[in-house]
Amino acid sequence: MSAHKYELMFIADPELDERGLKKLTEQYLEIVTKEGGSVDGTDYWGRRKLAYEIQGKTEGNYVVVNYTAEPATSDELDRLLNLSESVIRTKILRKDK
């Protein structure tokens, strides 16, 4: 198995402040680094209006992360993000196809 480059975009609860959002992001990215992957860049887009209401919310905190990891690590990250109460939506794209 070899590592691949991924782009993760997630939308977090709009109620989270900047510190809470950074803490949440770092908590999940620890999964990548613990498994020997690397975080290549994190971009906080801030609060934005959602295209449509999700879980009763009309806004969300957007975060985009580029990372390198094994497919299994990426799957686990996705699974954990989907279980999180603070994460409204996630999408992971493989960048090196």
Automatic annotation (TrEMBL):
User: Gene3D superfamilies annotated for this entry?
Assistant: 3.30.70.60
* Domain of life of the organism encoding this protein: Bacteria
InterPro entries, per the entry: Ribosomal_bS6, Ribosomal_bS6_sf, Ribosomal_S6_plastid/chlpt, Transl_elong_EF1B/ribsomal_bS6
GO BP terms in the entry = translation
Q: Which UniProt keywords apply?
A: Ribonucleoprotein, Ribosomal protein, RNA-binding, rRNA-binding
Q: What does this protein do?
A: Binds together with bS18 to 16S ribosomal RNA.
Task: Give the family this protein belongs to, as stated in its UniProt record.
Answer: Belongs to the bacterial ribosomal protein bS6 family.
Q: Which HAMAP family match?
A: Ribosomal_bS6
Name recorded for this polypeptide: Small ribosomal subunit protein bS6
- This chain's source organism reads Bifidobacterium boum
